[in-house]
């Protein structure tokens, strides 16, 4: 049987996992895909570098065109990362009729529509299961498993680094800075953790998930993003006392074809299944109109989990190629995008205020909420021995984002409110 | 665009859901499948019966051959249940070149290989996502999402009725009989609950899941089955005290291509994600060699969740038909079946004994474990005011099923052991 020849762009963590699985599971893969799979050429930055894997050196190249322009290469597996030059390489490969498997969330979040369109026009597949939530087959689930349903809401813990940090803060009462330092030492956080802790990585993944879930092209700019660097151990303590955990949640919602997508630290009721997803694990909760509540849980990163998704995509690409249906899987995105405005986005909020400890203050504050028609689920005023002021903890009923912002603006000009200590979206 | 004509066998709960989704989501489905979908004819037992759905009466028929033999019908959706006559109908439909979507776990567990083989030979698809775990797309996940991986273990809460009963017993300290009665009143349990509570329904689903996960034809007879009717509220209380929940788990394992599949009430460590799956919800935990631990959670039954899976399969069947690849999806099962013997099946066990309350008894009992090389994780002897004897609670380390059975047989002939009160497999 003629083997399928794969060109691998990148031999970092995931690339190494891809080679290991393709070699280690060859017999199974041959049964699945219908022919042997050979990793024929591998793009690396430095051929001389020491590796954890024994690889025939003649396969390595430092020149991407050795792979992209090689007519013998059937499929490109892209696990090198990067955006602009990677986009160029993949578009060139597609123009030459090669199907693509990629794990590149940045690329797909920014240029997904262009790349998918090019693939369709050239009769190629582009599959990207590994770009979101590592080993969890959530992209397949949204495209195929729920093709008949209308997705109302997607909530994702899609960044392992921040979930590790928040879990440690919650379980050990530790501060953000201390846990971040530890995570960096353990290799769970990068030396420059900005993309993770500021929510950008999660936002890219939510762009991909919401595009597939709502069948409309969501752009990265459509996602409102807030990271976890301002989450304090006190906030987490208050959350726990009230029965919540603080999680960095991507939340995508759709009502009447109007959508909103955001990433922010969120207080999640402990009884909600996503509240107990801890450490570096990822989970995606999907609420469909017909199917109801579902959740998909697993490793969000790592050499072999992510490589599982890449190689499963590779099997699918090879099958499609053999069946002559590459690039013919039909429209996944066909709806006009309508974004919600801030007064259409509704949720509960947790608000912690430090206020002057004297008569009438609580009345004044609750009056502000009433003015903007934000109704309250619970209000707790208590002394805090660590500060000269009193503390007020408020959980609202569902309220529009716009109204809550107006309330907060009013507080800023209210002298008795010394500071707005924390504001969290509340779910569950 | 020429509509796809669907023949629906059965208009019970799931059939009604199928009609609702096909009608309600018509525009979306047309975009997904590439043509309108019409439910053209519906097989019912009694045309005159009152229904919750308004249906053009001319579509209804009481004669299956009106549908099976109609050359205009492109796809059959089978949601009528039953085994022997249903098998005949579907094989006849396949012989006429019709693809099938079915929710019938009994049929697929008993005759899956025959039906899939017939479909392949006739260029038809048979999809059956709805046959296991309702709305959770677990069959797709095993076939496609994890095609590149080797599955080591599948654990499933795949029967909502028993999970509802065990959850209620755990949360309310109620007895099995009381909760079963309540479940029957609420419609969560059938008047004759045997198939659910004795584990047969779960065994059928585990037959399907293990066949796909291990890529070998597992038969229903290969599954060892024990139901929940002997689970007492005391057992659940002991489990909770030790940090466990009692769940009816389907457990399928594969090491070195040797497999075992069983269904039994199991004590699951509370920290394991499957331990907190409560009520009528289902979950399937999949451990892959490369992907690690994953879990898929959702509604296991119900009109719309199950119909979501049926209609998503329908979309896939229609797409395959249009692409000309029906029946050409390749081998899902290609391994020789090798079953583990009882001395190869290993797990921890919980054993509760009532013993004579006198010197030397514990020594004698632990000696029996030692004789059969079963080592112990924990042993607790305590008085029980409700019985004249003492109680001994043992949790073993991993031990072979055969050895534990020998230990239990020894206890039966040991005078000081008054009764073997409970034995549970332990997971997590």
TrEMBL record, chains A, B:
CDD domains (alphabetical): ACT_HSDH-Hom
Cofactor(s) listed in the protein's UniProt record: a metal cation
Catalytic activity: L-homoserine + NADP(+) = L-aspartate 4-semialdehyde + NADPH + H(+)
Top-rank taxon, per record: Bacteria
Keywords of the record: Amino-acid biosynthesis, Methionine biosynthesis, NADP, Oxidoreductase, Threonine biosynthesis
EC number(s) recorded for this UniProt protein: 1.1.1.3
UniProt pathway: Amino-acid biosynthesis; L-threonine biosynthesis; L-threonine from L-aspartate: step 3/5; Amino-acid biosynthesis; L-methionine biosynthesis via de novo pathway; L-homoserine from L-aspartate: step 3/3
Gene3D superfamilies the record matches: 3.30.70.260, Dihydrodipicolinate Reductase, domain 2 (3.30.360.10), NAD(P)-binding Rossmann-like Domain (3.40.50.720)
GO molecular function: homoserine dehydrogenase activity
Similarity section: Belongs to the homoserine dehydrogenase family.
Entry protein name: Homoserine dehydrogenase
Organism: Paenibacillus thailandensis
């Amino acid at each position: 049987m003629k083997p399928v020849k794969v060109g691998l762009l990148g031999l970092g963590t995931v690339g190494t996992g891809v080679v290991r699985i393709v070699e280690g599971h060859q017999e199974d893969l041959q049964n699945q895909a219908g022919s042997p799979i050979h990793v024929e050429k591998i793009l690396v930055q430095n051929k001389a570098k020491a590796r954890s894997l024994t690889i025939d050196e003649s396969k390595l190249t430092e020149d991407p065109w050795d792979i992209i322009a090689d007519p013998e290469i059937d499929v490109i597996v892209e696990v090198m990362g990067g955006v602009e030059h990677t986009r160029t390489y993949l578009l060139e490969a597609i123009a030459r009729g090669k199907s693509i498997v990629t794990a590149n969330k940045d690329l797909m979040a920014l240029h997904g529509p262009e790349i998918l369109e090019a693939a369709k026009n050239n009769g190629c597949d582009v599959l990207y299961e590994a770009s979101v939530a590592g080993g969890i087959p959530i992209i397949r689930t949204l495209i195929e498993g729920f093709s008949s349903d209308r997705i109302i809401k997607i909530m994702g813990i899609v960044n392992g680094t921040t979930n590790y940090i928040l879990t440690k803060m919650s379980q050990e009462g530790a501060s953000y800075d201390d846990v971040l330092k530890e995570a960096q030492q353990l290799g769970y956080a990068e030396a420059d953790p900005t993309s993770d802790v500021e929510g950008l990585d999660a936002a890219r993944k939510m762009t991909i998930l919401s595009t597939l879930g709502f069948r409309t092209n969501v752009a990265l700019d459509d996602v409102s993003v807030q990271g976890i660097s301002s989450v304090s151990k006190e906030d987490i303590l208050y959350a726990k006392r009230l029965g919540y955990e603080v999680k960095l949640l991507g939340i995508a919602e759709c009502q009447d074809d109007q959508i909103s997508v955001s990433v922010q630290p969120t207080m999640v009721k402990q009884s909600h299944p996503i509240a107990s997803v801890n450490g570096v694990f990822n989970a995606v909760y999907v609420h469909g109109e017909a199917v109801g509540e579902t959740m998909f849980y697993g490793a969000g990163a790592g050499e072999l989990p992510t490589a599982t998704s890449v190689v499963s995509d590779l099997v699918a690409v090879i099958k499609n190629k053999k069946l002559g249906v590459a690039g013919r899987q039909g429209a996944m995105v066909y709806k006009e995008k309508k974004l919600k405005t801030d007064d259409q986005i509704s949720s509960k909020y947790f608000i912690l205020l430090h206020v002057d400890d004297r008569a009438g203050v609580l009345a004044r504050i609750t009056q502000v909420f009433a003015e903007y028609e934000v109704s309250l689920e619970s209000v707790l005023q208590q002394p805090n021995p660590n500060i000269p002021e009193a503390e007020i903890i408020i959980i609202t009923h569902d309220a529009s984002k716009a109204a809550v912002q107006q309330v907060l603006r009013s507080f800023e000009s209210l002298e008795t409110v010394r500071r707005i200590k924390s504001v969290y979206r509340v779910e569950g």
